[in-house]
Structure formats: C-alpha cells, structure tokens
Amino acid sequence: MTDFQTIRAGRQEIAVRKDLRVPMRDGVTLAADTYSGVGDKPRPALVALSPYGKELQALALTTPPQRRPSPMWDGCIEAGDIARVVQEDYVHVIGDLRGSGASEGEHIGNYNAGGVPLGQDAYDFIEWVARQPWCDGNVGMIGISYFGTMQVLAAAERPPSLKAIFVSGGHYDFYETTYHGGVMWFMPRAAREGRGGDSGWAFTDGVKSRMLETFSPEEIKEKVAERLRDPDVAAWPNLVHVLTYPKNHEAWFDIVMNEVDGDWYEERNPITLAPAVDIPVWLQIDQGRGWTMDGTIELYKALKGPKKLDIGPYPPMQSRPFVEEHDKMFRWYEYWLKGIDNGVMDEPAVTVHVEGSRETVTGAQWPPKDVEHRPLYLRPRHKLSFEPELMGAEHAAPDGFYQAPLTVTDKVEILSWSTAPFTEPTEMIGQGAAHLFVEIDQPDTNLILRMWDEAPNGRRQLITTAYLKASHRELDEERTTEGDPHHPHTRAVPVEPGGIEEYVLRVYPFAATFLPGHKLVAELSNAEPLADEHNALLPPDAFHLPVGRPVTHKIYRDAEHPSRLVLPFTRAAAPDAAR
Predict the structure, then answer these.
(1) Which domain holds residue 475?
(2) How much is the pTM?
(3) 3-state helix, strand, coil in the chain (%, to 5)
(4) Where is the chain membrane-spanning (predicted)?
(5) In whole angstroms, what is the distance from residue 122 CA to residue 126 CA?
(6) What's the pLDDT tens digit per position in 306-333?
(7) What is the DSSP letter of 471?
(8) Which domain CATH number covers 520?
(9) Terminal-residue alpha carbon distance, the chain
C-alpha cells in the first residue's frame, strides 16, 4: 500500500501521491493528487475539484495564507490548507476537472458544462476515492468559491460515499454570479482569464465554448453583431476583443453572449438541484458581497437534509487558503465523517455575525429574528428620513447627476443621502428594497446603490449593495413581496427617454447594527469607483461594466414619487433617529 513520496511541512511529514488517474464512466480519466499522513491506515477523504489546477493548490504548503489587499492573494488557491487537512487525519484529494490541468476530455461552457454534467464526473471521482485502500469509505468535500459550487453539484448526484459537505463562499444562482441586477460583473472574467489577483483556469485545448458548439458560424456572427449593438459592450475593449475572437477565451465569451437569464444558466443550476441534496450541508458566507449571500440563503432554503447557515463578518474576501473557516469545517466533518458526537448538531441552525455591534445572532431560520420592513424616504438636501416628503415635485425638485462615459472621464458621479446620527442602536437583518423614481434621457442605464455605515469620525464600512440595469426593471410579481423584490431578468425592455419610471432594486441581504452617533449613507451612481474603502479590499477586476453612453439622471423624491429604502428592522428605531 506504500505508493507515495514524502515531504515535510514544518514538523509534519506528509505522504504525497501525484498524478493518479481517475476513470470516468465515459472512458475519460481525470488527474488527482493526494496528501495524507504517512501511516498506511485508511482515513476519511476530503475531495476538492476545480479547473484551477491541482499544482496551484499545492502552493498552500509553501505560501502563508494571504488576505486582500495583499498582492500575493490569489483567488484561485481555494482547495484549503493542505497541512491542516493532513494534521486533522484526513486524505486531501485534489483533482483537475475534465478539460483542465492534467485531466483528459473537453470542458464545454461554465459549471453547466454540457455533454457530461460536472456533477456526474464528481460522482465518479468520489466513488473512486472511496474504493481506494487509503480511504475508509467516508468522503466529504472541501474548497471555497468554484470548489464550493462543485460540492453542491456533486451532492445533487447523490454519490453513496459522500456523507456531508461544508461549502464556503460558493456561487449558486449562475446568472446572478455574473449579472447583478442585469449589470455585468467582471470578476468571472478574472477567474477565467487570469487577471486581477487570480491565476485563472488551467486551460487546455479541451476547454470549448458552449455557444460555438451549439450554433452555426452564421448564427454566431449574427448574435455577436447584436451583442455589439449594446453601447456598454461596444465601449469596453476587452469585450470587443472577446466577441471578435471567441476562441481566445471561450468560457468568458459564453457568459458575455448570454446577457439575460434562461436555459443556458438554468441547466444544472445548484439552486434548482438543491431539493435533490439530502446529505448534511453547512453553508458559510462572509458579508460584503451581497449577491453571494443572496444565493447562499436561497440555496439554504431549498435544501432538504440536515443543514446549517453561517454568515460571517466583513470584509468579503477570505484568505487563500481560506483558513478562517477550517475550525468549523473540521468540527462538522468530525461529526459526520468520524462519528464523534461533538455537539455540533445541538447548536442553532442559523448563525449570523452582526456588523456594528459585533454580536452573534442565532435562530432556526433566515432571518434569525422577526423583521419589520420600514421605509426610509429620500428627502431634499440629501436627507434620509422615516417621514415621507409632503411637497410636490414643483417644490421638492428632483436630485440629479450627469455621467459621461468612462471613455472620456475618470470621474464617477455619486449622489448620496444620509440619516441623522442614530440615537440608539438600530439593528437590521435581512434583505430589502430600494424604490427609486428616476427619469433618464437614454434607453438604458445602471442603477448602483451602496449603503454605508458612517462613524462619527467619518470612517465608513460598506453594509450592502443593490444593482439594477434599467432595461431589466420588470418584476417577478409572483415572488415579489414588500422588502423582497425579485426580477426575472429574462428580457431587456428599453426605457422611454424622458419618462419617470419606478425602479425597484433588490437590496442584498445584510446584518448590521447602526450604533449611536453613526449614520446610514446611501449612494447612487451608474458606475462605481475602482478604489474606495470597500473596493480596495477586492481584486482589481471586481467591478461592473460601466454605461457606454452619456446619461442624465433625475431622481424624484416628492409626495407623488416617494423614493425610499425599505429595510429589515429588527428593533424599533427611535422616532427621531433618522429624521
């Protein structure tokens, strides 16, 4: 059984098996490395699968954990702390997905690869691991982000040897992963191309475009021409390049070409598959990237088996490797893979860190407390108040801003409204809405809303965000409730310039207490600064596609147009706390 080499990590000796070949049911083999203690006894295994390359993951043995904004942070080193996994007496199995790294086969598209579901490959991989003499037959999974999403895809296939999963920072609503409120996000480009703090996919010749495989060259030419008629896309050099030369970055080409939700994103969507997951699942996410929290909560609600939801503190980017969550993960697997009753299942199902108060709130569901959605109205002189505006538009004239395209300016125009300093701790936990009455002079724009907690000394922390492309303003009336709007994003409907429209933005989930003396500040723009208190913590490519045309915006907030935030209060704020 001794078929390994040994290395040292600190005082620890680690057995390494390199370039194992794992057969899939269609004859393709995937490549894998394993790391374990040197003894020959069988151990539980933790499987990590991605297209980022198993050799990259091995850097966890030699590079101390890095957190943004460290320039050494690499968002693709996501399989976990190898030495810690071995120390806890598991076999760490790191595999390359088909079409990447040292694996065979073709990888067509994104997570929903087409042809062979990635979950099917994960099933075969896990069952192969369970049969090996170095594994005791009990398998869990490990890894953040892409690795986390793969855990859900695997669990939905129900491999018998997969006993539990611990998912940190996964992406679940595939459309919302790239288009936030219909506004394109560039971070998936970074993960695929290797830009802005990410090494990117371990591309081989086996990675192909789903679009190019599906449509004829003539159809692709027509679809590309249509996409380039979007002035936002046509003004951005990287997108023009990708659309013109699609074989350069096939996976990113597919995402750019699918700007509305539909079958391309829905097929094998983890949230759709969640009811098939019946093994124990712990979902963990940190605050600061609201769309990821939103998808995590939606997935949690759809799961049918034993489950936990753990929402951690700001800032949003965990270390690579993600050592912050390892203590929780090993408690989870100690219980489900080693059979040790450590009390983890006696603890509350939902645990939420509340920013501001730095308290931990627990409960049986999300949100963990009863919530009352209350409005905060946009008022003249950039105020937010619990009281609505009484004057009409002729006296309460709209606020406004003109944004020139970023091709001709470096300045992002931002409107802001703020409460008076709160006079008592004011807690909010949940998701919300922003009702904005806006007139624009173009057929489309972005509406980007960011909410901040501003301390008396001026220091600010981002609390949550909301995004909506104006042409995606249609609401899903069946799912939308007060303070909980949903948009189908299945088509784009141009805006009639010069008309006043009510736009309802989904305010992503958050948990925060505004302490006495602090203010809630809401900022509105149609682009976002590349560097501020929050964006400095993100990789350089973690911004959204700017609007490619000049747009004048007027925001009405009068008696007939009650622009407002609808927020999830868990404690009654003082009547004058935000006048």
Answers:
(1) 372-569
(2) 0.94
(3) 25, 30, 45
(4) none
(5) 6
(6) 999 999 999 888 889 989 999 999 999 9
(7) G
(8) 2.60.120.260
(9) 72
